[in-house]
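[job 4471] stage=fold_predict status=RUNNING
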Amino acid sequence: MDMKMILNGVCPHFINGTIISAKALGDGNINDTYLIKTPNQDYICQRIKKEMDIEKLEYNYKLYSKACQENSWLYPTWMPSDEGGYFHIDKSAYAWRMYPFIRGQILKSPLSEESYMACGRGLYKMHLALADIKGRPKAVYPHLHDLKYYYEKYIEIINEKPDIKKDFRDSDIETIINRESEFMLNIDLGPEIIVHGDSKLSNIIFNNGKFMGFIDFDTVMQGYMLEDIADCVRSCCLTEGKLNMNAAHNLVEAYVSMAPAEVKEVVLNGWQDVFYKICFELGLRYYIDVISGEMHFKEKTPGYRLDKARALLNYKAL
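[job 4471] inference complete, writing structure tokens
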């Protein structure tokens, strides 16, 4: 990305004054994110993937931002552009947004026992707050975590001109998919609620070990409580590629410690199967990306997407 274009072509639509620098930040799979430094304030500037519906993003922002404000949480507070609304559209039809850089801690696993518990409590607090928002979020990713949709897409891809796809296919991965798909497709996902949709550790903000808020609400939607819990477990309770049951237990127990008895029973009985389903579904999506050439996920290093698919699909065997 041309940093001069960001500095001169994007940032002035949101902020006035001197801009010191812009640099790429993080390793997100979808949007391109940059840290913008000025003499008095740092900002985040993001280029939004073209497939994302910015009208839905803006509609959802107005819903969840109110819940975050009422709970005094940290979250990305979008800045209005000089074109109206929250986005600047560049000459290549990409949408850009900006918000002040959030001062907090993004932790990396392995965590302390208390931090695992803080994740669980924070996730429950977020679910409780989102339940009170006035309105129903519009799904920016309509098939997020929809395993049936991705499995049918996979079958369609491998049956369509298979000779063209054969150089990209992996027989070991497809053996796992064929063996596990029926079980995964029939897992009970429990009750629907409004969920974050991408409740991974890198989206949770801490301060001195205490939960302070969430970032990246682009996936907020009507979904399944157990999937949000399981995705959080996946992101922070893996040690050397294996599920750390003690860590997962601490996170899940902290979540249910704040929940009513009926929720506690559902979570304790169902989270582990849904954890495997989340891993399977994400691994399948990475594999679809490889054999279809869609490039939804970034190929961070040669073979990255195939390695991710293989690792995620193998979690059921642990």
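[job 4471] summary: The chain has a mean pLDDT of 92.
[job 4471] exit 0
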